[in-house]
Write a structure and sequence with these properties.
heterodimer; A: about 120 residues; mainly beta; 7-stranded mixed beta sheet; 4-stranded antiparallel beta sheet; globular; B: about 110 residues; 5-stranded mixed beta sheet; 9 strands
């Protein structure tokens, strides 16, 4: 257990469905991140939040919609996804947006399959 | 952030030291060297980081050359559970994002 909890661990959804991924941390961190890892590809940064404010959107399609209601929770809302969006979605947090002394703490990820 | 170069794969016998190299020849003075690892289908795990001096913690040691153009992560007694992809990343302390490359796939064998 890393201190960053992601739910669900696995998700299968149809292309017309709407679903949400949840990330929660109680490490007292102020920055949170969404990453995507497709098969045999490096991790790709999607979104950065610092003190609940989005500071970076890495050209992510609008079918992915993040939400950060407070510094402890981060959501990724999904709608009308494509099969190529199937991937491992990872949430991370850090003390501040620079990573801090202990770097980033990652959750175990949500394995998403779009059918 | 400076580009880092790592070998795509390495093997190590269990119980032996695993020495993972990383080149970061364009690293700037305010960039730290961070190491993470990712065990299959899990999130990356922070291992260690350093700026100029060698560092050691309960997981590993980090040796940074005097010119800071390269570094080596040392796992002193590798076990099968150390089989993972290891990422070396050069990043400033105030950077807003951690960017991963392809890393080194370390296979620890009996």
């Amino acid at each position: 257990e890393t201190g960053v909890t992601q739910t669900p661990r696995h998700l299968v959804m149809g292309m017309t469905n709407k679903k949400s991924l949840k990330c929660e941390q109680h490490l007292g961190h102020n920055a949170m991140y969404w990453y995507k890892q497709s098969a045999k590809k490096p991790l790709e940064l999607m979104f950065v939040y610092n003190f609940k404010e989005q500071t970076e959107n890495n050209s992510v399609p609008s079918r992915f919609s993040p939400e950060c209601p407070n510094s402890s929770h981060l959501f990724l809302h999904l709608h009308t996804l494509q099969p190529e969006d199937s991937a491992l979605y990872l949430c991370a947090s850090s003390q501040d947006k620079g990573g801090g002394r202990r770097g980033y703490t990652f959750g175990s990820g949500t394995r998403l399959t779009v059918v | 952030d400076a580009k880092t170069t790592q070998p795509p794969s390495m093997d190590c016998a269990e119980g032996r030291a695993a020495n993972l190299p990383c080149n970061h020849s364009t690293i700037s003075g305010n960039e730290y060297v961070y190491w993470y690892r990712q065990i299959h289908s899990q999130g990356p795990q922070y291992i260690i980081h350093g700026l100029k001096n060698n560092e050691t913690n309960e997981m590993a040691s980090l040796i940074i050359t005097e010119d800071r153009k390269s570094s080596t992560l040392i796992l002193p007694h590798a076990t099968l559970r150390d089989t993972a992809v290891y990422y070396c990343i050069a990043i400033t302390g105030t950077a807003s994002k951690l960017t991963f490359g392809t890393g080194t796939r370390l296979q620890v064998t009996l």
